[in-house]
Amino acid sequence: MALELTAEHKMLMALANKAQKNAHAPYSNFHVGAAILDENAQLHASCNVENAAYPLGQCAEAGAISAMVASGSKKIKQILIASPNDDFCPPCGGCRQKIAEFADTQTEVHMATKTGEIKTVKFTELLPLAFGFDKN
Length: 136
Ligand code: THU
Fold this sequence. Notes:
single chain, Cytidine Deaminase, domain 2, binds tetrahydrodeoxyuridine, 27% helix, 5 strands, alpha+beta
């Protein structure tokens, strides 16, 4: 059964999709967008930015987190990751740790497919016993 999309889902998805269009992913050709709703109800988004020196590439989530922190916020209420295809794109291990830095037990992670299907999990389901996560 399709999940009823909330206004927050729709805003996050629109912003993530907009950033995703600007992804710099000439090496993987896997374009990802991410958007965050922070504790001040502000939105932040980014895309993946790859590099010819492959390990220097940055995930979409990391860019969105940087934008949030630069704006003065330190709490992720919701984060949505927009996949370029019909599969959900769960955050990589490194990004889970980056999200942990600014998450709490209520933080939600939404994963959206290209067609707008959304799966939502609590952050704590993605990275149980996270290092440095003292909000358990
Ligand atoms: N990528 C993201 O931006 N976010 C994810 O959650 C998974 C993977 C990027 C990294 C790389 O630029 C490309 O997708 C292929 O792995």
